[in-house]
Specification:
Blueprint: E1 4-6, E2 24-25, H1 28-34, E3 43-48, H2 51-58, H3 61-79, H4 81-107, E4 110-114, E5 117-122, E6 128-133, E7 137-144, E8 150-156, H5 164-167, E9 182-186, H6 189-200
Antiparallel strand pairs: 1-6, 2-3, 3-4, 4-5, 5-6, 7-8, 8-9
Length: about 230
Amino acid sequence: MDLHASNSANPGVPNRTLAGYGSGEIPESATEAIFRRALDEDVLWRGRPETFRHAASAFHTNCVAIYFVILSAIAYFNSGLGSAITVAVMGLIGVAVLMAMGIYSARHSAYILTNHRLLILTGMAVDKRISIPLKHIGSANLRRRSQGHGDIALEIKVKHRLGYLLLWPHARPFRFLRPQPLLRALPDVENVAAKLAEACAVYAPIERDLTDVKEGARKPAKPELGGAPA
């Protein structure tokens, strides 16, 4: 089983099957409809990003909103109320567009963990299925956010052709040369991290506790999730 990305794993059954389900774990019936598993493959966990947190994280809606608030204040002091209202309206339109894109992306994304691989299903315009064998995962970096949510970035030990744009928005920010798949805006991220660690432990000994790593850090404080080379 090689590391690869492809179009629909089940022809005729696009990722849009996921659109009717909310955040968190998705039903087994939906899992069966959107990917074909091997005879000895068991699904350990299946879930998806939390919609609004995914929009804020991947499309930076909060940062853009703050930016336009500052611009509106500057416009008010420099040119008066009319200019401030114009800038504010432009900001609202921009944030609304980004929010819509983020919601659409989250509703058409899912993560499926089996005893052999991790699948990332995504697609803004074209459905994509990214299959990552567990034996190729070298480490996992957990970033905890508020209310039990968080992100898990995966470092792949083998050389791969998964480009940053192919993975986005499920790519760790600013890792362009060696893109890292990112499980973004996960509810109950601690539980997901534990299941991922347990699944990968079949292939190599690992440390069960994942350490917080900030996005700007070059390397994790210690190796957190070990994987065997292919």
